[in-house]
Design brief:
Blueprint (H helix, E strand, L loop, with lengths): L3 H8 L8 H19 L9 H6 L7 H8 L1 H20 L3 H20 L3 H16 L1 H7 L9 H28 L5 H20 L13 H5 L6 H5 L17 H12 L3 H31 L10 H19 L6 H25 L3 H27 L4 H27 L8 H36 L9 H20 L8 H11 L1
Helix pairs in contact: 2-9, 4-7, 5-7, 5-18, 6-7, 6-8, 6-10, 9-15, 13-18, 14-16, 14-17, 14-18, 14-19, 15-17, 16-17, 16-19
């Protein structure tokens, strides 16, 4: 016989060990967030414009404003679509390595470049880094299960914002407190970016992606995506030769055209295109404006890093607080957009008109905070009715259209082949642009509110509201009435005379 103690040991289930998948996911989260934090550590970025205008490079303000900075918009438009497609086709990791290589190239050109052509090439590499940011934001969704999307997105965004904030604060402390020159600050940035390049080389490459590499995932039993429902007869991610109508992107564009009938999708997509175009132009040229408002050769009195850090922190706070705003968006969305756009217009005018650098800093900080407040709201409104694949495509199309508009404005306003306006005059143009947007959104909001009140007047009045006690009393009375009615005869009794006449009739 087996001893009772041994039998008890056999009957007791084994203690569950640590989940290897959960442990792997946590390690992956940590590494991705650490990489996202490190790639944002560029303490010299806030001081590139005073570095170019200072004695180290000695470029003129007109060269920086009308010849060097406009190249960023043109090159970003040229590389955005190829990088967007390569990001998904190559499965993210090669594009992240390309981004790190481009960052290193940017700071090498800042160190070794001497001509306007060198700085224009620097802007080209910087545009590649901007276009490749989508690789990091979409890469995280290809490595974890859908149940962990929200947590993963929150962790990665927090790491990115923390990296930008830390980078700006570190740069400002090194310049103001440490007395570090702009050239030395660029060396520090180059070393940190070289380390982030090493980190990118060890990123795990996913086996599937959103648009192209989906066959293996489907064969392994993955859940079908919206693409399969768009064209049930075709295999996801693959079409017969010549059947261009069944290509993945073509099917998605057709589906996107059908979804554009949704008013919230149209509204927030148009806001994304028109507002972000002018927003990024303000961000590009504000450092040149600061140099005009406060021209100085003393690097310790330049507080660009502090302004960038404060604007990043306020943007994170407003983005977080936007998640708690609960209103009837179908009715009040245009009015909210109009109010935020009016605030942006006033802040741009303040940056244009003030001669106080601290007021200019403050206006920029509030300007970025106002924009970041609406970004998560627009993201939620766009993504709430779309699949993951279509959501990524919508954001890509919106970014592309905003880049096209931004490039047109740059060519007309900033480029020396266009008007070639100085930076002060450019900010006056941006003020008028935001003012026009405010007028359009305010008119649309007034029409929506007017139609709402007219519809509410024509609608029948709602039923009278009663308290729960009154409802219960009315229910009891109705039951009593029903019981009394059941006790009543179905027909009225005949009168005595009629009763006497009935036997005669029978007779």
């Amino acid at each position: 016989m087996v001893p009772s103690s041994q039998a008890a040991e056999k009957q007791m289930p084994a203690e569950p060990g640590p989940d290897p998948e959960l442990k792997s996911w946590r390690c992956l989260v940590f590494y991705l967030c650490f990489y996202g934090f490190m790639v944002q550590l560029r303490p010299g970025e806030s001081f590139i414009t005073p570095y170019l205008l200072g004695p180290d490079k000695n470029f003129t303000r007109e060269q920086v404003t009308n010849e060097i900075t406009p190249v960023l918009s043109y090159s970003y438009l040229a590389v955005l679509v190829p990088v967007f497609l390569l990001t998904d086709y190559l499965r993210y990791t090669p594009v992240l390595v390309l981004q790190s290589l481009s960052y290193v190239s940017v700071w090498l050109l800042l160190w070794l470049g001497r001509s306007v052509l060198h700085m224009q090439l620097m802007e080209l590499f910087y545009s590649v880094t901007m276009a490749a940011r989508i690789a990091y934001s979409s890469y995280i969704f290809s490595l974890v299960r859908p149940a962990r999307y929200q947590r993963m997105a929150g962790h990665s965004r927090a790491a990115t914002l923390l990296g930008v904030f830390t980078s700006s604060v570190l740069g400002q402390l090194l310049v103001s407190a440490g007395g570090v020159s702009f050239s030395t600050l660029n060396f520090v940035s180059l070393g940190l970016l070289a380390f982030s390049l090493v980190l990118a080389l060890f990123l795990k490459r996913p086996r599937r992606s959103l648009f192209f590499n989906r066959d293996a995932a489907v064969c392994r039993g993955a859940a079908p995506s919206e693409l399969g429902r768009m064209s049930p007869g075709a295999a996801p991610g693959r079409a017969p030769r010549g059947a261009w109508r069944d290509w993945t992107l073509v099917r998605m564009l057709r589906e996107l055209g059908r979804n554009l009938r949704s008013p919230p999708l149209r509204l927030w997509s148009l806001w994304w295109v028109f507002n972000s175009a002018a927003y990024y132009l303000v961000v590009y040229y504000v450092h040149i404006l600061w140099n005009v408002v406060h021209p100085t050769t003393d690097s310790t009195s330049v507080y660009n890093g502090g302004a960038d850090a404060a604007s990043t922190l306020l943007g994170a706070i407003t983005s977080f607080s936007a998640g708690f705003v609960k209103i009837h968006w179908a009715l009040w969305a245009k009015l909210v957009i109009a109010g935020v756009t009016a605030l942006q217009a006033m802040l741009v005018f303040l940056m244009y008109s003030t001669s106080n650098i601290w007021l200019c800093y403050l206006a920029f900080v509030l300007f970025r905070g106002a924009y970041q407040f609406l970004v998560p709201i627009a993201t939620f409104q766009i993504a709430s009715s779309l699949s993951k694949e279509l959501c990524a495509l919508v954001f890509g199309v919106n970014t592309f259209l905003a880049t096209v508009l931004k490039t047109i404005i740059t060519l007309i306003v900033s480029d020396k082949r266009g008007l070639g306006l100085p930076v002060h005059s450019q900010f006056l143009v941006y003020f008028v642009y935001f003012l026009v947007l405010f007028g359009v959104y305010l008119l649309g909001a007034m029409l929506v509110v007017l139609q709402h009140f007219q519809a509410s007047r024509r609608a029948p009045p709602p039923p009278e509201l009663r308290s729960p006690a009154e409802e219960k009393a009315m229910q009891v009375l109705s039951e009593q009435d029903g019981g009394l009615s059941s006790l009543q005869p179905e027909a009225l009794p005949l009168a005595p005379q009629e009763q006497n006449q009935q036997p005669e009739a029978k007779a």
